Amino acid sequence: PSMKAMRGSKLRMKQYSLIPVNHQKEARVDITHLKESLTVQKIGIPVMSKYNHSSAPQTYFNTSFERHGPYIGRSLRESIPKSTPKPMISRKPRETKEPLTPKRNIESRTESTKSRFNESRVETSKPVVKRPAVLPKIQLKEASRDKEWLLKAKPEIEKMWRKVISRSNGVESSVSEEKFKVFVGRGNNSVLIKKCFSSRSWWMQTQHIEEADFIWTQWKEKELLRGFPCVFQTNSLREMYVPVSFMSPVRLKFPNGQLNAVDIESLGFSLIRNSESYKAYTQTPLDPHKVRMHNKIEFNQHLANKKGLYMSMKKYYQQQDLNVFDFLPLTFHLKQGESDPEFEKFLEEFEKCDQEKLENTRFQNLWIVKPGENSNRGQGISVCSTLAQIKQELSSSVNPKTGAKRTFIIQKYIEKPFLVHKRKFDIRCFALVTCVGGVMQAYFYKDGYLRTACTEYTVKDVSNNFVHLTNDAIQKHSEDYGKFETGNKLSYKDFQRYLDFHCSDRKVNFYEEILPQIKALVKDTIQAVYVKLDPNRRGHTMELFGYDFMLDNSLKPWLIEVNTNPCLELSSPYLSLLIPTMVENALRIAVDPLFVPNVGTTWETLQENRFELIFHEAKDGAELLARIERSNLEETEEVSDKEELYSEDETND
């Protein structure tokens, strides 16, 4: 009996179909047609009888796709005998990969086919390369509990830190087995500076400034700076790509043998490495015993001098078609008192304000008169409400301490300041400028403090400095000093709490709305003096600057002044934490990468970096120089480099 046709089932094409030879002529069908055809009609296949077959052994041939020639044009229905039972129509077969050739047909392959076959077998036998397993990550605070790990990791982390700074400077100091010498001058909490260097076992103090590797003084040692060599290597620097990684080079091993990667991003490396101003360069070798460093920058008067700051900022904003008085209070610089042409411009503004005073009884026409040069800690500053008072201040054209002729700054008083508990305040923040290897960079410190007045604010009494001037040198003489805040100081967090409680309807975030504006103004000051500050690129210098800002009643920050000798006294518990941390952080950026300790010598602790890189001359200076070249503005006056030799805190250590 023959096999029944399978109706309604899918036609399954097997790789090796066996067809009797005696039906070969009738059923010679191009099987490849089945593969290419979208539909297949009824196919009749001769069926072998189970019992009535020839006594001669049946031979079979392979009907795989490779062994059949092309279809010669007849339809499948015509190629099959009519007497043959017709099986059921089948659907299109599944598309499958090209079937493998049976082993007995490998011999008939060409040599190229054999080689491809052999190559494929070799490729599949290659071992699979496994990717390294991703280690579990833990935070530095947790890892620091393991004292053994901390002992091994500290030197490597310090090395990472120095690399970040040194690559940005373009120099690399060699390790020295000899100790370095530091000279610390008197005044402005020199004890704190000595303590910072005492914690560095690779430093020793000296009383002779000429033999010191690092010199820290209150005021600029001009003759010392003139003896420093000029270093210009910016044009020879080659930028390099450095992958960003904030993982400790030393892994932490748990008792069960599990290795863990330690995340050290909390140390603040990203504030410098991820800054838009950061540049990494190939490093020039440097012998630290053949270089010296001073904590003052040559020609810093263009930034820290009231007259120099105003002139620099005015020119800078003019180059950008901006109004300087959108960032600084309305200011006039008088060189010749009442006979100065600038005094006529001041009179016009004074008369306008007087007219406004008549229309608005709450408005007071108040002005501040400051010495144009060398005033610090509120020295020589007066608040005036009448033209007669202003003229009286201008009549003293000679500095009573130095006997030198001086100029004046007349500045509009911010009559509607933002108040804290009805008292005036200003904001003190810090910036660090370094010039190492001829590369100038600037950093902004993310923490600062508020200096509050002792007496409630009023514009009716302009003679009371306890109302209008917030300097410590003035406020500490008040009977109410420290009555409302310890040392008359508030942290940024304290101020944010005040805003949240007393100005909740305004929903002000100091860190996200006000502090970024302050940082932008600090960067503007650096860019304004970039071509004037340290033009000779003395190797090597650094300086800490103290910035003072005020907020008006709309919480807009206004730049008041920049100080070359900011007070480092620890007059409150908060400053006892802030100032030493800030100074230590500055030394780790400016000093430690240049004067590298010997092997096995490390810092006492791993301190978090709070300085953010905001200026790099190779990144930010190029566009600035192009803008300066396009402008035709010329400097109209040379700014004096004279300094008054008195301490900002007026105390002796």
Could you characterize what this model shows?
With 653 residues, the chain is α+β, with helices and mostly antiparallel strands. Helix content is 28%, strand content 17%. It contains 18 helices and 22 strands. Strands 16, 17, 18, 19, 20, 21 and 22 form a seven-stranded antiparallel β-sheet that branches. Helix 10 packs across helix 16. The longest helix is centred in the first third of the chain and has 23 residues, at 147-169. The termini are far apart. The model is unreliable at 1-31, 33-82, 99-110, 113-126 and 644-653 (pLDDT under 50).
Please give the alpha-carbon distance between the first and last residues: 121 Å
Which sheet architecture does the biggest sheet show? 7 strands, antiparallel
Query: Structural class of the helices, strands and pairings?
Result: alpha+beta
Shape descriptor: globular
Rg of Cα set: 42 Å
The number of distinct helices, counting runs of at least 4 residues, comes to 18
Sheet-strand content, in percent, reads 15-25%
Portion of residues within helices: 25-40%
DSSP strand tally: 22
Average pLDDT level: 81
Brief characterization of the structure:
The protein has 653 residues and is α+β, with helices and mostly antiparallel strands.
Secondary structure layout plus pairing:
Layout: E1 18-20, H1 32-36, E2 60-62, H2 76-79, H3 111-124, E3 137-139, H4 140-143, H5 147-169, E4 171-173, E5 180-184, H6 190-198, E6 203-205, E7 214-216, H7 222-226, E8 252-253, E9 259-263, H8 270-273, E10 284-286, E11 293-294, H9 301-304, H10 306-319, E12 331-334, H11 341-359, E13 367-371, E14 382-384, H12 387-394, E15 408-412, E16 423-436, E17 439-445, E18 449-456, H13 465-468, H14 472-475, E19 489-491, H15 492-502, H16 510-528, E20 541-551, E21 557-563, H17 573-590, E22 611-616, H18 617-630
Parallel strand pairs: 3-9, 4-10, 5-6, 5-7, 7-11
Antiparallel strand pairs: 1-2, 8-9, 12-15, 13-14, 13-15, 16-17, 16-18, 16-20, 17-22, 18-19, 20-21
